Amino acid sequence: MKKLSFLACILFLGISATAQEKKWTLQECVNYALENNISIKQSELELELADIEELEAKGNFLPNINASASNSWNTGLTQNVTTGILQTQTTRNFSAGVTASLTLFDGLRNFNQLQRARISELASQYALEKMKDDITLFVADAYLQVLFNKQNLEVLKSQNEVTLEQMQRTKDLVEAGSLPQGDLLEIKATNADEMQRMIVAQNNIRISLISLAQTLRIKDYESFDIVDQGYDIFGSEMLENSVYEIIERAKEERSEIRIAEENKNLAEKDVEIAKGAYWPTLGAFFNYNTRESGMGRVTGAEVDPENPTREIGVVESTGDLVVAPNFVSTLGSPLPFFDQLSMNDGISYGVQLNIPVFNGFAVRGRVKRNEVNVKRAEYELEQAELDLEANVYQAYVDAKGAFEAYEAALVASEAQEQAFSYATDRYEVGLTNAFDFSQAKVRFENAQREVLRAKYDYIFKLKVLELYFGVPVADLKF
């Protein structure tokens, strides 16, 4: 008995754990998307590349230091690097060196390159912020669509409960002979139509949930769900601002304008970098080198026993040959490795000046091309301001129209509710038929659905307007 109780308890806990699957709130969806969305990750990579570009630009101010070393073996007739004598031999030679160079002046190109890297980093940061804004709105739109579909299903279910009650009541009245059979058939047809619409509504919920999950890169479609809660209408004070105030605020706050401004600054900085090639380049260098050989060193000289003398000339008056002792070098073991390095080292240093004289108009062409890019960036900035102004104006009109549509939907829904209540009372006392009752019910149901649609449409469009006004993503209220 205890075992059965224990197994039942385990089974109950398992069922409870399955039933309590995580349901996502809108804020959780937005936060998850900001951390995992592919487009945002790509924008973060662009920002990382901009950081690398800045690091490289800073490195241009530092000296370049390079070291080299080689150890080689030569076999055949070669010169002994120690004695200078040509010999058929196998030699081993080692050499090493360190070279340092530093740019002293390059037409301020390094300085301008660093400034450009910082501007590029700023532009990438603005692009990342814009991407986060876009993803937030995209997720919010998908989330509100799921919520609308869910609440639409609840409306259909509540209306179907009324239909089922009326169908049972009509059935009783038909069996009592108070109503014709046609009224019961009309109510049954209405019930069948509502069942079909509930199936479609359920499918719409599933599809919208899958779409939201894909946006969040969540692959467990079956268990993914959102919190079943409505969102209130608030924050309408945003519409109390004039559209021109919102436009001016958007020009100061929105990333679209900042990105265009930084792109213009980048183009201007490219012109300065290109003009730097007109100037001479001055650099300094320093080199240290040394060498070592495995050949024996000269330790002295002695007369060659096989050829003790050698001719050095002829006496003009007598024609006698002049000879001298034929000394040959005697070789000992090579000096220690580090002793040779210290004895054979040397340094070189100096400055180098390069003056551009003629380069086939290459520099001039780069300068002119970048000046064209500056003009293009100026036009793009102007176009971005025009587009932003048009978008803000459209968003303002959309939000205001959505709010008015929502208020009108509330009035219409209230009127249809009263009409449906009146039709219900008339139907229950036999003053109207089932068809007229069903039509009143459908109109009330459509009015409720329109209230939901207008509500979430207004919430979304208001959030768009708030973003244009400069409200941070984290401060958006739903």
| CATH fold call of the largest domain | Outer membrane efflux proteins (OEP)
Assigned CATH architecture of the largest domain? Up-down Bundle
Give the averaged pLDDT, no decimals.
Answer: 84
How are helices and strands ordered from N to C? HHHEEHHHHEEEEEHEHH
Annotated CATH homologous superfamily of the largest domain: Outer membrane efflux proteins (OEP)
Strand order of the largest sheet: 1-2-3-8
What's the CATH class label of the largest domain?
Mainly Alpha
The helix tally amounts to: 10
Helix and strand content put the structural class at: alpha+beta
| Number of strand elements | 8
Fraction of helical residues: 55-70%
Overall tally of domains? 2
N- and C-termini, Cα separation: 52 Å
Strand content: 15-25%
Work out the radius of gyration: 45 Å
* Rough outline: elongated
**Largest sheet descriptor:** 4 strands, antiparallel
Low-confidence segments, ≥5 residues, pLDDT <50?
A: 1-20
Summary tags:
478 residues; Outer membrane efflux proteins (OEP); 4-stranded antiparallel beta sheet; two-stranded antiparallel sheet; 10 helices; elongated; disordered N terminus; transmembrane beta strand; membrane; TolC family protein; OMP_efflux
Would you kindly provide a brief summary of this structure?
The chain is of the alpha+beta class and 478 residues long. It contains 10 helices and 8 strands.
Describe this structure in words.
The chain has 478 residues and is an alpha+beta fold. Helix content is 62%, strand content 17%. The protein has 10 helices and 8 strands. It has helices at 2-19, 26-36, 38-59, 109-175, 181-215, 243-253, 255-275, 337-343, 362-428, 434-468, and strands at 64-79, 86-105, 281-293, 297-303, 309-314, 321-325, 327-332, 346-354. The strands form 3 sheets. It has a 4-stranded antiparallel beta sheet with strand order 1-2-3-8. The chain has a two-stranded antiparallel ribbon with strand order 4-7. The chain has a two-stranded antiparallel ribbon with strand order 5-6. A hairpin with a 6-residue loop joins β1 and β2 (86-105). α2 (26-36) packs antiparallel against α4 (109-175). The protein is elongated. The two termini are 52 Å apart.
